């Protein structure tokens, strides 16, 4: 099963430090210092059948679009990963006796599946929405992006 990658390799210097994604690891901003800016989880959804049937040219265009997103977002990207196929997911459900039982696949029966994510740091939701609006999955049939604030637990 061929899955689109978030990006093959990106290296960006946006003044606040470099941002690097390697094929074998997440996007990272080395040496980042904690800030008071909010963090947002950007969940990338799409139609797995469309991803699997994409031509090499379509995959190249998607890789380029994610590279452009990474370049524009710069050090605002705190992490990100492409996920394996939904068929590899395991969901835990609790039975009436309190035991947690693993089942194959994602919980909802849906054509739209979670394909990847980014963790962004932004001054506010409007800024996070503006960045996430650059992702190519928004323009895909059956695709979309969910943006959720991350709860900050300061000690």
From TrEMBL:
Locate the compositionally biased regions of type Basic and acidic residues: 21-31
An example of a Pfam family matching this protein is: YCII
Sequence segments annotated as region (Disordered): 1-31
InterPro entries xrefs? Dimeric_a/b-barrel, YCII
Where is the YCII-related domain positioned along the sequence?
39-151
- Give the compositionally biased regions (Low complexity): 1-13
Q: What is this protein called?
A: YCII-related domain-containing protein
Q: Which residues form the signal peptide?
A: none
The similarity annotation says: Belongs to the YciI family.
């Amino acid at each position: 099963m061929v899955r689109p990658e978030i990006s093959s390799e990106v290296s960006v210097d946006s003044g606040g430090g470099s941002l690097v994604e390697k094929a074998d690891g997440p996007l990272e901003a080395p040496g980042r210092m904690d800030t008071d800016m909010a963090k947002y989880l950007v969940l990338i959804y799409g139609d797995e059948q469309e991803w699997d049937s994409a031509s090499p040219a379509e995959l190249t265009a998607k890789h380029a679009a994610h590279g452009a997103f990474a370049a524009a977002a710069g050090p605002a990207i705190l992490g990100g990963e492409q996920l394996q196929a939904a068929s590899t997911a395991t969901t835990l459900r609790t039975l009436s006796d309190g035991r947690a039982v693993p089942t194959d696949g994602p919980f909802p029966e849906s054509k739209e599946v979670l394909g990847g994510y980014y963790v962004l740091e932004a001054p506010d939701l409007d800024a996070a929405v503006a960045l996430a609006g650059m992702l190519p999955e928004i323009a895909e049939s059956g695709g979309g992006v969910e943006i959720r604030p991350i709860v900050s637990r300061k000690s």
